[in-house]
Amino acid sequence: MEAGKIWNVGLLLVATLVAAKLISVLIMPRSKRRLPPAVSAWPVVGVLVRFMKGPVVMLREEYPKLGSVFTLKLLNKNITFLIGPEVSAHFFKAPESDLSQQEVYQFNVPTFGPGVVFDFDYSVRQEQFRFFTEALRVNKLKAYVDQMVTEAQEYFSKWGESGEVDLKHELEQLIILTASRCLLGEERHLPLPSHPAPSPPRPSSQEAGRHIRNHHSFSQTPQNDLLQCFIDSKYKNGRPTTEAKITGLLIAALFAGHHTSSITSTWSGAHLLTGGKHMSAAVDEQRRLMEKHGDRVDYDVLSEMEVLYRCIKEALRLHPPLIMLLRSSHADFSVKSKEGVEYDVPKRHIVATSPAFANRLPHIYKDPDTYDPDRFGPGREEDKVAGAFSYVSFGGGRHGCLGEPFAYLQIKAIWSHLLRNFEMELVSPFPEIDWNAMVVGVKGKVMVRYKRKHLPIN
Ligand code: HEM
């Protein structure tokens, strides 16, 4: 054969191979895609009934049958669940262009106001979250702690020598007072009701604007609050934040932190008050710290409260207020399940993971339904053994909670005060979970009998 012909045949061969590859990539995979197994139920009604029983009940039933990756067809949506640290890395780490929050969390827009957080494309949202990060840096947190401690002292000084209270209600009130003090400063001009409602109230933009101008022009000394941080924040192009945006950011902060923190402080209390040896360990720790530091409670002293930290963290493992995290997928991706099967998840699926379910996986946590704060202690560290996404009450990765340190400081400030100053006893039954709330919390009242004490130290 002449050289030219050989060349042509070669070219034809290469072109055929390329075309075959393209066809296999573009057409074949649709039929050969290894889709995750689907939850079986009667179309529409059957699936709705399963889902209405509660997503966590559905996960409990399906995970043992279908494994760590599976799809639920709900009306015209496909929801693919990635459950457990072995499969959820992509959920937490994927760039916004592949898995985004915007569409699935749009329902927040009317609350925060237009142009804030989920009403903006990712680059602007990222800048707004940078304002949060700056406002919650350690040096700022140190100043907030003083306000948290003062607020707790003032609040509990109004309790009598002894009495009975609904702890859930008390902590809801205290958390909103503390949060508004840290957010808005001592003046708290924003019209928060004297008996705050369970939901953070949304001030009108006029009222908020007035407060913002006052804050700016009348303060003689630098203010140590989130509002001041937001006022001082600037976008990369030097543009300052507007009053409306600042209001929205403040409301986003209140919203993200209020229910979540008050629910967690109530669960921490319910578990401590029924926790026997864990309660004693937490009180002993307070005694040791008082011997070392006297009555001083500041950022450094709170940071030494490791036993209390683990007690709160364990309450939050069992009862994460955000039970389901969602993303909308914009690009196909593959995931290898814990069981070793490779699946392809098509774009346009909603992708979900569940802190409430994943935090109780028995191959990660020993006796997962038992309250055992020591599981996080030296030598066990069950929250780390299976990697970064073993403990996901605060999410993780790209969108991990920015308020986590703030929340722990606030709850520790409250509980260290209670442990030092009161004997307490739970007089209502151990509370149940209120699965119907959007931020899943405690059902009914949590009645507690208290008596003042002063913790004796050696
Ligand atoms: C116990 C209390 C809290 C819990 C359990 C909690 C939980 C979470 C979770 C699970 C996420 C991730 C959501 C997702 O991936 O879709 C998140 C994000 C976030 N949290 Fe928290 N949170 C708490 C307190 C706070 C507080 C006090 C603040 C503010 C002061 C805050 C601000 C935020 C913000 C700004 C984000 C969004 C981060 C991003 O998307 O980049 N949180 N939180």
TrEMBL record:
Protein name as catalogued: Sterol 14alpha-demethylase
Keyword annotations: Heme, Iron, Membrane, Metal-binding, Monooxygenase, Oxidoreductase, Transmembrane, Transmembrane helix
Cofactor: heme
Chain positions covered by the region annotation Disordered: 189-209
Enzyme Commission number(s) from the entry: 1.14.14.154
TM stretches of this protein: 6-27
Organism listed in the record: Salvia divinorum (Maria pastora)
Domain of life: Eukaryota
Enzyme class: oxidoreductase
Bias type Pro residues, positions: 193-203
Stated family: Belongs to the cytochrome P450 family.
Record: residues binding heme: C401
One GO molecular-function entry: metal ion binding
